[in-house]
Please model this.
Amino acid sequence: MSSAFLYAAVRTPFGRYNGALSDERPDDLSATAVNAVLAQAPSLAPTAIDEVVWGNANGAGEDNRNIGRMAALLAGLPTSVPATTVNRLCGSGLDAAMIGSRAIETGDAAVVLAGGAESMTRAPWVLPKPSRAFPAGDVTAVSTTLGWRLVNPRMPKEWTVPLGECNEQLRERFGISRERQDEFAVRSHRLAHQAWQDGFYDTLVTPVAGLLRDEGIRPDSTTEKLAALKPSFRPDGTITPGNASPLSDGASAVLLGSEAAAAAVGRDPLARIAGRGAAALDPQDFGYAPVEAAGRALARAGITWDQVGAVELNEAFAVQSLACVDAWLKDGLRDPGVVNQRGGALAIGHPLGASGGRVLATLAAVLEERGERYGVAAICIGVGQGLAVVLENPEVSK
Model:
C-alpha cells in the first residue's frame, strides 16, 4: 500500500452565528473553499481529481443532502468528478479526509479533495412528517442547528441529554473546576489572536463576504470577565458561553494525494497521513472519546505520545478538552503546551462539518512552524464518538 499525503489546505474565516457569513449558503461556502485549495495547486488538472469527499452534519436545508456534489459543481469542477457527503456529526470533515486517505493508500484514487462545511445560522427548522394526511393536532418546528432532534422514544434518556449537560457530567466525573475551564478558554482566545497577528493564518484562510479573519476571537477576554457569565445548563453548573465553542459558519478543504501525485499537483506535500483512529463510547461521554481515538491512531502510526510535538484538539467545550489532555499526559504526552498552540474552537468557532479540515490543516502548519515530526489532530463527536489522525512532517522525517 502507498502512503497518503496532505498537499494543500484552506478554510474560510469562521463566522459567528447570525454574523458576517449569515447570508452565505453552505454550498457556496464549500465552493469557495474548493476553489481556494485548488488555487494552491495551479498545475493540477481538475480532471485529475478522482473523488470529492465532503463533511456536513446537518444536511436538512441548503446543504441539499449531497453538499459534496453541489460544492464540486458550483466550484466549476468537471461533471465527471464524482463526489460524496459524509455525516459523522462534528467529525464529518476529519472523517472525509480519513476516507480520502484510505482510498489513496489502497490505490483506488491518486488525488482526493476532502473537507466540509456548515452554516449553523442557516440550518432550518423542520416539522415531523405525519403518518396520515391532514393531522388534527399541532406540530412543533424543531431546530436542526445543533444537538438531538425528533428523538426516538426508544432511546435511553441518559443518552439523549443536551450536549452541555453531558459535559457537566464529565466535569463531575473528573473534578474539573470552572476556573480551569475559563483559564483554558482565555488561553484559546489569546493564542488565536496572536496567531493572526503573527500572520500564521494568512495562507490557511481565504476571505469570504468581506470577512478576513475569524469573527469570534475576543483578544480582550479575561478570566474575570468569563467568571461573571451565568451557567448555561445547570443553575450551579460550570459551563457557560465563555468556555464552550460558539455556533459558527464556515468551510474547509484539504487536497490529498499519493506520493506520485506530487508531479501532477505541482508542489511537495505538507504532511503524511501516518495513522488514523476511531473510537466510540456511551453517547453522554462523547467529549472523552478523542482519548481512545488518538491512542488507536498513534498505535497504527507506530509511535507513542512522547514522540508527539503538536496536538490540535477541537475544543467543543473547555471541560472535555481538559479531560482529554489530562488523560494524554498520563499516557505520556510530554507537555500540555503543545495542544492548540495557535488557538482552538473556543475562540475560532466550530462549524460542525468544517472543523475537521481546520484541525488537520492547522496541525500540518504547526508541525512545519515548530520543526516537529509527529502531531495528532483529534475531535469529539456527539452521540459518543471520536476521531484522530496522526500527521508526519516529511521535512523532519528525512
Remarks:
- The chain has a mean pLDDT of 96.
- The longest strand covers residues 248-258.
- Residues 4-121+246-391 form a domain with the Peroxisomal Thiolase; Chain A, domain 1 fold (CATH 3.40.47.10).
